[in-house]
Amino acid sequence: MKFKMSPLEKKWVLYDVGNSAFTLLVSTLLPIFFNTIAAGAGVSDSDYLAWWAYATSISTAIVAVLGPTLGTLSDLRGARKKIFSASILVGALGCAVLGFVQHWIWFLVLFVLAKSGYQLSLVVYDSMLCDVSSRERMDEVSSRGYAWGYIGSCIPFILTIVVYVLYEMVGVLQLMPAMILVFLIVAVWWVACSFPLWKNYEQKHCVEPGAHPVRTGFKNLGGIFRELGRNKRILFFLLAFFFFIDGVYTIIDMATAYGTSLGLNTVSLVIALLVTQVVAFPAAILLGMLSRKVKSEYLIMASIIAYFFITVYAVFLDQEYEFWILAVCVGLFQGTIQAMSRSYYAKIIPHEKAGEYFGVYDIFGKGAAFMGTLLVGGVTDISNNQSIGVAALSVMFLIGLAFFIVAIRCKSPAAPAEGEKAEGEEKTAGAEDTAGAAMLAAATETAEAETAAVQAGSPPADISAQ
Fold it and tell me: 439-458, pLDDT tens digit by residue?
């Protein structure tokens, strides 16, 4: 049966199209521009990669601290849209201003600001899935979000590639005009794609703020960690997610920087990552459709195993065609592991607390990239060998797989499966119906007995004795 999205689901997916343009920029042209600026200031190739990794780690650390707090506050009635808007404003404005900066340190500062705003907007955006879709549709809607995000982001990406070619190969543009155009294109696209969701979104699941909204938010944030101790299914999934998504986000953030540090042609690297986006679109759609017949747990496990082998392959990469093979393999599983993880988590959490739970999700998710990029940067800095740093990521996937197997074997008392919930409700309703029928029959018998007694001239029975 053909899957048709609702108008609101389409607008939710459109924001993925908008923010994915920034993700693609970060993984392609942005590190190349930074390398050009840093090299002009005398920064070596190994130091360039290390500084880039440190900046990425600082950004994810900021989000790891602010994400749960803002996520919890977004659960309060009427707050989600406001926090969503503020995050987009900070991220898009930081992106737009990046093109005007030519000092490598200030470039990194603005990059941290823009990336933090982007990541914080995703905390709120992911929690919106609980409001715009139903449990049985979440896997496919989430997959459509990533799929259309990949292919849709190619539009501004192609425009930025044209600008880059005019700068790098043709020489029509100088560095600053090229950077200004690139970052403005991405910022405008991001804001434009966010507007339909911002205009039409309504918060359905929420927590009442009470007399002191901020105090209520922080109180709820403290309670969620106690809830995780009781809900092993969510806890072990988050531990698994921390490790396997660590490798995924690190590969996304560091792919172009890694290839550039190996001396591979930058234009070829950028086009290869464009191929990743194109491949990821049908792969995410098809695997999203497959989720109707195959449990999302199995799709997640298959993606983790695939990424383990991708990371091992990356260690031996030193030719351009090998980077192209790597890009295609990443495209096949990148959308699936992200989309299925998001929808699987959304199905097992309480929806009225989606914001705070996705805030914690962000700690274990994007916060994990802090460890991954820091690991790559630190090992590269110490060993002066990029491949050794990349090799460490393969272990993260194995640990993540082990925790995920434990998670799917755990029961979740706080969020039963839809079928189990329906069955429990049916049993409860049946018991209530049976009790109600028995009470009605008893009352009828009592009324008939009293009527007969009155007609016979006898006093009615004492009801209290029954």
Answer: 444 444 544 444 444 444 44
Considering only CA atoms, which of 177, 218, 239 is closest in space to residue 76? 218
- Residue 260's Cβ-side half-sphere holds a number of Cα atoms within 13 Å equal to 28
CB 393 within 8 A of CB 251: yes
As a whole number of angstroms, the distance between CA 242 and CA 188 comes to 32
Q: Which pair of tokens denotes residue 356? A: 């705070």
Triad 306, 311, 317: Cα angle to 5°: 125
The two counts, helices (H) then strands (E), for the chain are 19, 0
Single out the residue of 54, 47, 194 nearest to residue 115, CA to CA.
54
User: What burial class does residue 220 get, using C-beta atoms within 10 Å of its C-beta: 0-12 exposed, 13-18 middle, 19+ buried?
Assistant: middle
Radius of gyration of the chain (CA): 27
Tokens of 262: 């190996």
Residue 439 CB partners (closer than 8 Å, separation 6+): none
**408 near 299, Cβ under 8 Å?**
no
Among residues 277, 414, 381, the alpha carbon closest in space to that of 52 is found at: 381
Q: Sorting pLDDT into bands at 50, 70 and 90, what band is 223?
A: low
**pLDDT computed for residue 405 by the predictor:** 94
Do 174 and 166 form a contact (C-beta atoms < 8 A)?
A: no
Model pLDDT, residue 412: 56
Query: Which tokens sit at 31?
Result: 């590190």
- Indicate whether 372 pLDDT > 60: yes
CA-closest candidate to residue 238, choices 87, 379, 107, 403: 403
Question: How many Cα atoms within 13 Å fall on the side-chain side of residue 246?
Answer: 30
d(C-alpha 134, C-alpha 176), whole Å: 47
SS3 content of the chain, % helix, strand, coil (to 5): 85, 0, 15
Domains and CATH numbers, the chain: 7-415 (1.20.1250.20)
pLDDT value of residue 212 = 53
Tell me how far apart the alpha carbons of residues 102 and 82 are, in angstroms, rounded to a whole number: 33
Structure-token pair, residue 338: 């992200």
End-to-end CA distance of the chain: 58
- Contacts (Cβ under 8 Å, ≥6 apart) of 383: 389
Query: Which pTM value belongs to this model?
Result: 0.69
- For residue 43, count other CB atoms closer than 10 A to its CB: 17
